[in-house]
Amino acid sequence: MRIAAAFACVGVAALAGAATVKLDPSAAALAQAMDGHRVVLLGEVHDNASQHALRIAALRQLVATGARPAIAFEQFDRERQHDIDAARRARPGDPDYLIAQARGDPGWRWAFYRPYVELALENDLPIVAANLSRRDAIRVAVDGWSAVFDAATVRKLGLDALPVDYRRKHEAAIAAGHCNTLPEEALPARARAQMARDLVLARSLGPYVGRGVVLLGGNGHVRRDIGVAFWLPAETARQAIAIGLLESGDDGADFDAYVVTAPAERDDPCKALRPN
Predict the structure, then answer these.
(1) CA triplet 258, 232, 184: central angle to 5 degrees?
(2) Cα separation of 92 and 122, whole Å?
(3) Angstrom distance (rounded) from CA 255 to CA 233
(4) What is the predicted pLDDT for the residue at 250?
(5) What pLDDT was estimated at residue 272?
(6) For residue 77, what are the CA distances in angstroms to 36, 72, 81, 150, 171?
């Protein structure tokens, strides 16, 4: 990824590791913030159409400068990498065919993600199936780390002895994400599944750091403190920037930089979770 001389829009030479910066909600500001970082953790509120429009416009501007990052998708499970690669060989330039072959979860609004696939195909950028499958995440939640990760990984990363503060932050995020309706005893298992997703997402980026890689993921995954960045090797983390795309009223403190957009129009997500 091309190294930028400066970040004129925010007045700093590098954002990662510095105080959190609020960016103008423009494609130019977002593209400029991404430029110069080997790893970009680019957040989203999944159903916010204006955020997706902003991100794809910014990525197109970044590519227009000569950057050729891999695009890593939370929306594609890692087991589907072979299917994605086969789809590109069979029908180059066909984003709909690729999405169908990758068997993306129908819960995703694929109209929002098609433009990123299209951008990658147009510019011959690697498409990375980055996520842990729902099935494996459930296995980690129910049976523990060893259900998915081998003993050497569990030992090397200290998965059975993660910092208390880190685990508590994850549990608090899970509770808030479920409108504080979950019983307290359910939080550790659900948090462990989220951590496992972050770990797998982080590992998926490794082969592409040399050329640059952008991870498209939910804001929870791209948090600098407890998200994917937590699992990156130290040298890679120093080359990374975590950018949240937030809605009005959200707190940007957990990111290196953030953009605020209007909220998407949606029903109250907590209504179905609250007891009648």
Answers:
(1) 75
(2) 9
(3) 18
(4) 94
(5) 76
(6) 28, 10, 8, 19, 24
CA 197 to chain centre: 10
- Contact criterion met (CB below 8 Å) for 170 and 182: no
CB atoms within 10 A of CB 168: 14
**Residue 144: beta bridge partners?**
none
Instruction: Return the pLDDT at 276.
Output: 63
Q: φ, ψ for residue 249 (rounded to 5)?
A: 100, -15
Answer whether residue 242 shows pLDDT above 50. yes
- Rounded Cα gap, residues 117 and 97, in angstroms: 11
What is the DSSP-derived secondary structure letter of residue 12? B
Torsion of CA 94, 40, 264, 112, to 10 degrees: 0
Express each pLDDT in 164-179 by its tens digit.
999 999 999 999 999 9
The token duo for 23 is: 């960016």
- Measured from the Cβ of residue 245, the count of other Cβ atoms closer than 10 Å reads 27
